[in-house]
Amino acid sequence: MKSSARNQLAGTVTHIEQSNGSCLVTLASAGGVEIHAQISSFSLKRLKLSVGSPVIAMIKAASVVLATDLAPMTLSAENCLHGTVKRVEQGSVNNVVTLDINNEINLCATITLYSSETLALEPDRPATAVFNANQVMLGVLI
Q1: Cis peptide upstream of residue 123 (ω within 30 degrees of 0)
Q2: Which pTM does this prediction carry?
């Protein structure tokens, strides 16, 4: 499978919650990192997903928001992954920031230069990747 999404995480479905034509699918990725994806019931059937199914979660880097100090905030986003900045690739308008999550996963976020400066993002700085479940696309190998 090829995709334009920078973030492609292999995992296994651990839980499926269905309600009113929508499904919240939880998967365990490398190192036990949990990712939540919201898909339609139609997509669940089309992908033939069930607990134990192998799946690829894809998240566009532009869908990932970074934060450096969330405490004591509670967010509506289903996915909040704590990590450490691994590198910052400088661009002319945006930077691509790579976080190391749990020494298992690299997750990229595309953020503005202003945001990168405001958050003082540099290697080894703790940061949190935040994204909604409806921004996660799921794929299976056929």
Answers
A1: no
A2: 0.93
